Amino acid sequence: MRLPHGSYDTLSEAMNKLKEQGFTYDFDFKHAHLCCGSENREYGSDELKIIEVHRFEGITDPEDSSILYAVESNDGAKGLVVDAYGMYADAEKTEFMSSIEIVDHNQDPEHKTDI
After folding, report:
1. How far apart are CA 65 and CA 77, in angstroms?
2. Domain carrying residue 30
3. Model pTM?
């Protein structure tokens, strides 16, 4: 996993910083695809790469946990995907996201890292 600017304290801080880095689309998971509504596009897992992954636990409730993915599509669309993890995770979304290749820019480009 790539953490180029260190870890973030909050989900909103991470989202704001990643948007500044060009991850401007808000991807949504529907019908076993990531959808980019503003572009009317759908992507399968083989059309995507995860660039960064960040996990956050709720301050007052450890069950209030989320995971943020910075994703890039094969056509250059860059955006964010937010999911819960743990007890409140969407099993289908989690399975879909775990099937996407994670690109670690600190390693050989042929190297694949799992979530």
Report:
1. 26
2. 11-102
3. 0.81
